[in-house]
Amino acid sequence: MKISAERVALITGVSRGIGAATAKILATRGVHVVINYLRNHEAAEQLVAEIRVANGNAIALQADVQDREQIQQLIARAQEAYGHIDILVSNAPTSFHPKPILQMSWDEFFQPVEGELKAAFELTKAVVPSMIAQHYGRLIYTASNMARQPSFPGGCAVGTAKAGLIAFVKYVAQELGPRASLPTWSRHPWLKLI
Q: Which InterPro entries does this chain map to (predicted)?
Protein backbone atom coordinates (compact mmCIF):
# COMPACT_ATOMS: atom_id res chain seq x y z
CA MET A 1 0.00 0.00 0.00
CA LYS A 2 1.46 3.34 -1.07
CA ILE A 3 1.11 6.25 1.34
CA SER A 4 -0.29 9.35 -0.32
CA ALA A 5 1.86 12.48 -0.67
CA GLU A 6 5.54 12.68 0.20
CA ARG A 7 5.61 11.80 3.85
CA VAL A 8 8.69 11.87 6.06
CA ALA A 9 9.21 9.53 9.01
CA LEU A 10 11.72 10.02 11.81
CA ILE A 11 12.47 6.62 13.32
CA THR A 12 14.65 6.29 16.41
CA GLY A 13 16.62 3.19 17.34
CA VAL A 14 16.82 2.00 13.76
CA SER A 15 20.12 0.13 13.51
CA ARG A 16 18.43 -3.26 13.84
CA GLY A 17 15.29 -5.15 14.82
CA ILE A 18 11.89 -3.45 14.85
CA GLY A 19 13.34 -0.07 13.89
CA ALA A 20 15.14 -1.39 10.82
CA ALA A 21 12.11 -3.41 9.71
CA THR A 22 9.87 -0.36 10.18
CA ALA A 23 12.21 1.82 8.12
CA LYS A 24 12.22 -0.71 5.26
CA ILE A 25 8.44 -1.09 5.27
CA LEU A 26 7.78 2.65 5.29
CA ALA A 27 10.37 3.22 2.56
CA THR A 28 8.69 0.63 0.32
CA ARG A 29 5.46 2.58 0.83
CA GLY A 30 7.02 5.79 -0.47
CA VAL A 31 7.89 7.43 2.85
CA HIS A 32 11.21 9.28 3.12
CA VAL A 33 12.94 7.82 6.15
CA VAL A 34 15.19 9.58 8.65
CA ILE A 35 17.14 6.85 10.42
CA ASN A 36 18.27 7.93 13.86
CA TYR A 37 21.01 6.00 15.60
CA LEU A 38 23.12 6.57 18.69
CA ARG A 39 26.33 4.57 18.18
CA ASN A 40 26.09 2.12 15.30
CA HIS A 41 26.91 4.34 12.32
CA GLU A 42 27.88 1.38 10.14
CA ALA A 43 24.56 -0.44 10.65
CA ALA A 44 22.61 2.78 10.02
CA GLU A 45 24.47 3.48 6.76
CA GLN A 46 24.00 -0.14 5.70
CA LEU A 47 20.25 0.25 6.22
CA VAL A 48 20.24 3.48 4.20
CA ALA A 49 22.06 1.63 1.38
CA GLU A 50 19.53 -1.24 1.46
CA ILE A 51 16.61 1.19 1.31
CA ARG A 52 18.18 3.11 -1.59
CA VAL A 53 18.90 -0.10 -3.53
CA ALA A 54 15.17 -0.86 -3.25
CA ASN A 55 14.42 2.64 -4.70
CA GLY A 56 13.58 4.14 -1.32
CA ASN A 57 14.76 7.40 0.14
CA ALA A 58 16.60 7.52 3.48
CA ILE A 59 19.27 9.34 5.44
CA ALA A 60 21.00 8.42 8.69
CA LEU A 61 21.44 10.99 11.46
CA GLN A 62 23.21 10.46 14.77
CA ALA A 63 21.66 11.82 17.98
CA ASP A 64 21.04 10.82 21.56
CA VAL A 65 17.24 11.01 21.87
CA GLN A 66 17.52 11.43 25.63
CA ASP A 67 19.26 14.78 25.10
CA ARG A 68 16.97 17.74 24.30
CA GLU A 69 19.66 19.73 22.46
CA GLN A 70 20.61 16.76 20.28
CA ILE A 71 16.92 16.13 19.54
CA GLN A 72 16.50 19.73 18.40
CA GLN A 73 19.55 19.37 16.13
CA LEU A 74 18.18 16.06 14.81
CA ILE A 75 14.82 17.64 13.98
CA ALA A 76 16.52 20.62 12.32
CA ARG A 77 18.74 18.38 10.16
CA ALA A 78 15.77 16.18 9.20
CA GLN A 79 13.73 19.24 8.24
CA GLU A 80 16.68 20.65 6.31
CA ALA A 81 16.88 17.41 4.32
CA TYR A 82 13.17 16.85 3.72
CA GLY A 83 11.34 20.03 4.74
CA HIS A 84 9.11 18.50 7.42
CA ILE A 85 8.42 15.47 9.62
CA ASP A 86 5.06 13.74 9.34
CA ILE A 87 5.61 10.55 11.29
CA LEU A 88 7.51 9.89 14.51
CA VAL A 89 8.35 6.30 15.40
CA SER A 90 9.79 6.43 18.92
CA ASN A 91 11.65 3.14 19.09
CA ALA A 92 14.99 3.88 20.78
CA PRO A 93 15.86 0.95 23.02
CA THR A 94 16.38 1.37 26.72
CA SER A 95 19.52 -0.24 28.03
CA PHE A 96 19.19 -2.21 31.24
CA HIS A 97 20.80 -5.08 33.07
CA PRO A 98 18.41 -7.68 34.48
CA LYS A 99 18.70 -7.74 38.23
CA PRO A 100 16.45 -8.93 41.05
CA ILE A 101 14.66 -6.10 42.87
CA LEU A 102 16.34 -6.87 46.21
CA GLN A 103 19.77 -6.54 44.61
CA MET A 104 18.95 -3.40 42.61
CA SER A 105 19.74 0.16 43.63
CA TRP A 106 17.32 3.01 43.00
CA ASP A 107 19.61 4.36 40.26
CA GLU A 108 19.68 0.96 38.52
CA PHE A 109 15.88 0.86 38.66
CA PHE A 110 15.34 4.45 37.61
CA GLN A 111 17.83 4.63 34.70
CA PRO A 112 15.71 2.66 32.18
CA VAL A 113 12.50 4.31 33.40
CA GLU A 114 13.96 7.79 32.94
CA GLY A 115 15.58 6.88 29.63
CA GLU A 116 12.41 5.45 28.10
CA LEU A 117 10.14 8.26 29.22
CA LYS A 118 12.55 11.12 28.59
CA ALA A 119 13.11 10.04 24.98
CA ALA A 120 9.37 9.72 24.29
CA PHE A 121 8.59 13.01 26.06
CA GLU A 122 11.32 15.08 24.41
CA LEU A 123 10.72 13.65 20.92
CA THR A 124 6.98 14.22 21.19
CA LYS A 125 7.41 17.81 22.32
CA ALA A 126 9.90 18.41 19.49
CA VAL A 127 7.77 17.13 16.59
CA VAL A 128 4.18 17.87 17.57
CA PRO A 129 4.15 21.68 17.06
CA SER A 130 5.07 21.34 13.37
CA MET A 131 2.60 18.46 12.94
CA ILE A 132 -0.16 20.66 14.33
CA ALA A 133 0.89 23.52 12.05
CA GLN A 134 0.83 21.28 8.97
CA HIS A 135 -2.46 19.60 10.03
CA TYR A 136 -0.94 16.15 9.74
CA GLY A 137 1.05 13.91 12.03
CA ARG A 138 1.44 10.35 13.21
CA LEU A 139 2.98 9.45 16.56
CA ILE A 140 4.02 5.83 17.00
CA TYR A 141 5.67 4.38 20.10
CA THR A 142 6.98 0.85 20.50
CA ALA A 143 6.43 -0.80 23.85
CA SER A 144 6.67 -4.37 25.12
CA ASN A 145 4.51 -7.06 26.63
CA MET A 146 6.79 -6.74 29.65
CA ALA A 147 4.58 -3.78 30.61
CA ARG A 148 1.63 -6.10 31.11
CA GLN A 149 3.18 -9.39 32.10
CA PRO A 150 6.53 -10.07 33.78
CA SER A 151 8.62 -11.92 31.21
CA PHE A 152 11.69 -12.92 33.18
CA PRO A 153 13.25 -12.43 36.60
CA GLY A 154 15.18 -9.19 36.85
CA GLY A 155 13.05 -7.33 34.30
CA CYS A 156 11.26 -5.07 36.78
CA ALA A 157 12.96 -1.84 35.68
CA VAL A 158 12.39 -2.25 31.96
CA GLY A 159 8.85 -3.59 32.50
CA THR A 160 8.07 -0.52 34.59
CA ALA A 161 9.61 1.73 31.92
CA LYS A 162 7.44 0.19 29.19
CA ALA A 163 4.32 0.46 31.38
CA GLY A 164 5.14 4.13 31.90
CA LEU A 165 5.48 4.55 28.14
CA ILE A 166 2.04 3.05 27.55
CA ALA A 167 0.52 5.44 30.11
CA PHE A 168 2.35 8.36 28.47
CA VAL A 169 0.95 7.41 25.05
CA LYS A 170 -2.59 7.32 26.42
CA TYR A 171 -2.22 10.85 27.78
CA VAL A 172 -0.68 12.07 24.53
CA ALA A 173 -3.66 10.61 22.67
CA GLN A 174 -6.10 12.21 25.11
CA GLU A 175 -4.48 15.64 24.98
CA LEU A 176 -3.45 15.86 21.34
CA GLY A 177 -5.60 13.40 19.41
CA PRO A 178 -8.97 15.18 19.52
CA ARG A 179 -7.48 18.64 19.11
CA ALA A 180 -4.92 17.93 16.44
CA SER A 181 -6.06 14.69 14.79
CA LEU A 182 -2.83 12.96 15.74
CA PRO A 183 -3.68 9.28 16.27
CA THR A 184 -1.31 7.33 18.49
CA TRP A 185 -0.59 3.63 18.84
CA SER A 186 1.54 1.75 21.30
CA ARG A 187 1.59 -1.65 19.60
CA HIS A 188 2.86 -2.98 16.30
CA PRO A 189 -0.40 -3.35 14.28
CA TRP A 190 0.06 0.31 13.28
CA LEU A 191 1.91 -0.94 10.21
CA LYS A 192 -1.46 -1.92 8.77
CA LEU A 193 -3.08 1.37 9.73
CA ILE A 194 -0.79 3.85 8.00
A: NAD(P)-bd_dom_sf, SDR, SDR_fam
